[in-house]
Amino acid sequence: MPPISPVDPTYPLVIRDTLTRMVLGTISEPITLGGTFAIVKLERIIEADGVPFDDVIEDLTTHVRLRVEQMLMQQRVRSIINEADLTVLDATLKRTWERQKRQAMELPK
Question: pTM for this structure?
Fold first, then answer.
């Protein structure tokens, strides 16, 4: 699993909060995540590299802009697929269309 930052909103808050309270090398109690559970181990703490924010703001801005564009494009794909009223007669093409439709709907939101 890649490193987790306590400020990374892609991970559930309960996991991030648990990690901030843990001591290096310890394993957490089971954490409830909806209908599932997680157990985390704090293997190492990666210190900040000390790069000034002004030195990375341009790269961060580009990264965020690209991510937002990607997210909006994925939303548009889902919208187009939901609005599509297709009748596929060929069985092979129909299976392919259904598979691709499912994959598009499973894209991260």
Answer: 0.48
